Amino acid sequence: MSSLTGRIEQLRQDILSDPPRISVYREMPFAIFRYNPEDEWTLRSETQNLAIQLKNAGKNVVTFSMEQILWEILEKIEEENPGEGKLGGLIDQERSGKFSEVQEQITTYLSEEMYCPLSNVLEEKLSVLDPKHDIGFLVHVGALAPHFYQVSRLLDELYGLVSVMTILFYPGSLEEPHGLRFMDLHDRPATGGYRVKIY
């Protein structure tokens, strides 16, 4: 069994145990499943298989693509705030070599209350799920790279707000003892202090 397959199996067992063993804090029923960015396609296949196994065990997996949510947020900002969130404008800025400015603007959109905070969107999506039967999978998290939004910040902001079991599939490297380097980007420091179990 590969490391990835073995950890998926451990995650499955922990989800189905009674009580579940995925979370450290009751107020934060989250876990991070870390995988190497180059294993993205294998991970997608493994998560689909895991969802089928969990369904066969009476659980319902609801998958949320961070890539899709990011586009939904930008479209909503463009619709509700004329002159803001213009997708065409952001794309033009990126093409003209102003990627750092685009990145900074998107971070603002995902963070500031006057726009559409990512944590608020996820809280809304996860809060309609049934904690007894549903499990949230947060996938395609690499869409937040390189610096659109800090994953550790997202989990902190959801603390105490979500009651459904949620697994965030994190592309990156593990640096001992508990540091994670998002997308294995070498210009980005490994961050620790996650208050959730890391697989």
Describe the structure.
The chain is an alpha/beta fold and about 200 residues long. It has a single domain, classed as 3-Layer(aba) Sandwich (Rossmann fold), CATH 3.40.50. Helices cover about 45% and strands about 20% of the residues. It is built from seven helices and six strands. Strands 1, 2, 3, 4, 5 and 6 form a six-stranded mixed beta sheet that branches. Strand 4 (about 165-175) and strand 5 form a beta hairpin. The radius of gyration is 17 Å and the shape is globular. The mean pLDDT is about 85.
What letter string, H or E per element, gives the SSE order?
HEHEHHHHEHEEE
**CATH-level-2 architecture:** 3-Layer(aba) Sandwich
Q: How would you sum up the major sheet?
A: 6 strands, mixed
Strand content: 15-25%
Q: Which CATH class is shown?
A: Alpha Beta
Short description:
The chain contains 7 helices and 6 strands. The chain has 199 residues and is of the alpha/beta class.
List keywords for this structure.
6-stranded mixed β-sheet; 6 strands; 199 residues; Rossmann fold; 43% helix; alpha/beta; 7 helices
Question: What topology emerges from the helices and strands here?
Answer:
Blueprint: H1 3-16, E1 30-35, H2 40-56, E2 60-65, H3 66-80, H4 87-95, H5 99-111, H6 118-127, E3 134-139, H7 151-158, E4 165-175, E5 179-182, E6 197-198
Parallel strand pairs: 1-4, 1-6, 2-3, 3-4
Antiparallel strand pairs: 4-5
